[in-house]
Permease YjgP/YjgQ family protein
Amino acid sequence: MNKIDKYIASSVLWAFLIVVLVLLGLDFALTFIEQIKKVNDHYTVASLLQVILFRLPGKFAEYVPIASLIGTLMGLGTLAATSELTVMRAAGMPIWRIGFAACQPILLVSLIGLGVSEFVSPVSEQKANLIEKFRNQKSGEFSLTGGVWLKADNRLIYIDAADNTGKLYGIEIFAPQDQQLESIKKAATATYVKDSLWQLNQVSETVFYPDRIDIQKAKTQDWHMSIKPEHLYLASQDPETLSLSQSISYQGYLSEQNLDASQYELEFWITMLRPIAAMALVLVALSSVFGPLRSSTMGGRIFSGVLIGLAFQNALNLFGRMSVAVDFPPVIGVSIPIAICLCAGIVLMKRRG
């Protein structure tokens, strides 16, 4: 049985690799066509190609569930078309054993995808973002441009830009008090010192009193702020580009500041549950191969896999976004379509075998 298990696993694995390469190739081509209009003197075609290539690891991790579904349909479908599955069943091999052999490579690539999401794609995504943000600049000085708003220690903070050393540029600090603005502090730059201490440079502070407005200026001033440089970086990134550990760290910071972290929780659970989602879709594929798609052509299987994958992805987005909108735990919203696929796959597999 070990040789048969390896044969089934290798068939599914090769089909998965072909599918994921096709998906990545299509994504590369479509993104290149869409983004080519952004090319200019500072953002060349070579820079665009770098951006797309740096984002491929994240795309790979994202495509793992759908590629698992279509790969299983193709791999086992090929065995069914050559009557090899029929021979295995006639030799007394149960469906669950075939399914177990097919799930092994999918579980492996799902865990690899999870590792890519944690260690590879956040770094490569950061590099892609840096290249994109440099496209309108003549020098690669800034790592964060376009400005970002933060809330810390009951203060609203706007940061115009930050360089790779953690130095901040164009800082504005708004201090509200009882629904009124108490003061506005502006600084040309800020440098991180240690712990929660920053140093503001070229400071101008406007203080609002009931009967007057005072403006104070200073060359340097200490600034105590709970935001650390790493939180600043995380605030400038999209939630789906963060690693699991980064997402947990930033969720903790947002909770400390009494800010909404549901979007980060949603993306965390989407990434975390991808291996389970892949296994659920494999069960659906197995029940289809032994059922309605047993005598279907390869094109029919691929088309069916694409439809099921799109339906699953849309359901995942729908329930996930709804959970955020109605203030429901995102983990439940993400789990609903996965649980439906798992239950459907198990029920259908029992009927087949």
Observations:
- The mean pLDDT is 88.
- Residues 87 and 93 are 9 Å apart (CA to CA).
